[in-house]
Amino acid sequence: MTTTKEQPALLRYQPTGLDAAPEVNALLESLGLGGFAADGLTAFGGRNDNWAGSTRSGDQVFVKTVAREPDGTSPELDRALSFETLAAQLPAAAPLRVPEHLGTDRAAAVSAYRLLPGARSGSEVALDGDFDDELCAAAGRAVATLHSLDPGGAEVDAGEAPLPPLRWLEAFPWSAAQDRSMAQIAAWKLVQDDAEAVAALARLRERERAAPHTPAHCDLRFDQFIVHEGMLYLCDWEEFRIADPARDVGAFVGEWLFQATYSVFAPTGDKDAPALGFDLSHEEIVERGSAGLRRHLPRVAAFWRGYLECRTPDPELAERAVAFAGWHMYDRLIATAQAHAVLNPVARAAAGIGRTLLLNPAGAVATLRLGSPR
Ligand SMILES: Nc1ncnc2c1ncn2[C@@H]1O[C@H](COP(=O)(O)OP(=O)(O)O)[C@@H](O)[C@H]1O
Ligand SMILES: [Mg+2]
C-alpha cells in the first residue's frame, strides 16, 4: 500500500473474526478500553494472529495472541512479559523504544499494546531504501541498550536459543519433514551435506556458550522494527532471553547481506534485462553484488557506530556476530524456501555468502565494518 495519512504503509490483512477470538475484546474490556470498533479493524503480517484498530473508548490498540503448549502454558508469552519487566527500568528518553504494553490475559495468551498509527514496518522501510544511516545508528543504540539491561532478580529464560538446531544438521526427523516444502528440504540438505559448515555451526555454539551473555532479542529481523514519526521502535519479544548478544548484531548484519544478495537479481529498470536476472554472466553477478555491498555496508557501519556509543562489547563479539550473520543467511534461505517447490539460485548464492562468513568470521570483521573504531 502507498504511504498516505489515511493509509498506513504496513501490509494489512483481514483479521480473524472476533467472534472466533472472544478473549480479545474481553481483554480490552477488562483494561477499561471497551472492545474493538468494527470499523477500520485490520491485521498486520506476522506469525501470530493480531488485530489493530480503535476501541470504543477511542484508543488505538494492537492486540496479538501467541502460541500455547498443550498444557496451557506459553513460554513465548513468559519471555515477552519478562522483557516488559526489564523494560520498565528504562528511562523515557532511552534509545530503546517499544510500543507501550497495556495488559495481558495470561490464560488466553493475548496481549494488548498501544498502536503506533500510520507506522511502517522496518522491512518495508529497508526495501524502499529508507532504512538510512540515521535509522541504522538508532537501531545500534537500541540494541546496545537492550544488551545493557540489568536482569537483576527478574525471571528471564536463560535456556539455549533453539536455532540453529544442531540435531537437524545431522538428520531431519520424519515428523518435521512432512510439513516442509521441497525447497525447504533442499535448503536443509545444502547445510547437511556440507561437513565444514556443520562443524562451523557446532563451533559457533561452543563459542556462544563460553561468551558473556546479556538480555537479547534473539529474533531480530527488519520486520521487528517499526518506524513511527521518524522514530524507531522494536517489537515482538517472544524470543527474548539471556543469550549471546552477538546473535542480535549478527542478525542485523545478516539482514543487510541477504538484501544485498537479492538486489543482485532484482529488476534493474532496464526493459531489456531479464526479469529475474537469472542469466547474468559471472562478471555481472560479481559487479552487481559488489555494488549492493557498497550500498549496504555503510548501514552496517552506522549500526555498529550507534552500538559502540551505548555499550562496550566483549572483545570477540564482532567475530561471533559475523558467524551469526552467516547463519542468518541460511536461516532466511530456509524461511523463504517454505513457499517454494524449487530452491532458487538467489537463495543458493545467499547461502554461499553465509558459508564464507561462518567458516572464517575473523576474516570478515573488517570488511563488514564491525572493527573497533580508530
Ligand atoms: N504497537 C504496534 N503498532 C503498530 N504496528 C505494530 C505494533 N506492534 C507490532 N506491529 C506490526 O505488526 C507486525 C506483527 O507484530 P509482531 O509482534 O512482530 O508479531 P509476530 O509475532 O506475529 O511476528 C510487526 O512486524 C509490526 O510491523
Ligand atoms: Mg514479528
Describe the protein.
It is a single chain. The chain is of the alpha+beta class and 374 residues long. The chain has a domain of 244 residues: Alpha-Beta Complex (Aminoglycoside 3'-phosphotransferase, Chain: A, domain 2), CATH 3.90.1200. The chain contains eleven helices and eleven strands. The strands form four sheets. Strands 3-4-6-5 form a four-stranded antiparallel beta sheet, with helices on one face. A three-stranded antiparallel beta sheet has the order 7-9-10. A hairpin with a 2-residue loop joins β9 and β10. α8 packs antiparallel against α9 and α8 packs antiparallel against α11. The chain is globular and about 60 Å long. The termini are far apart. The N terminus is likely disordered.
Strand content: 5-15%
* Second CATH tier, the architecture of the domain at 121-364: Alpha-Beta Complex
Percent range of helical residues: 40-55%
Q: Find the CATH superfamily of the domain at 121-364.
A: Aminoglycoside phosphotransferase (APH), C-terminal lobe
Q: H/E series, N to C?
A: EHEEEHEEEHHHHHEEEEHHHH
Q: Unreliable segments (pLDDT under 50, ≥5 consecutive)?
A: 1-9
**SS-based class:** alpha+beta
Strand order of the largest sheet: 3-4-6-5
CATH-assigned fold name of the domain at 121-364: Aminoglycoside 3'-phosphotransferase, Chain: A, domain 2
Number of beta-strand segments: 11
Distance between the termini: 43 Å
Number of helix segments? 11
Largest sheet: 4 strands, antiparallel
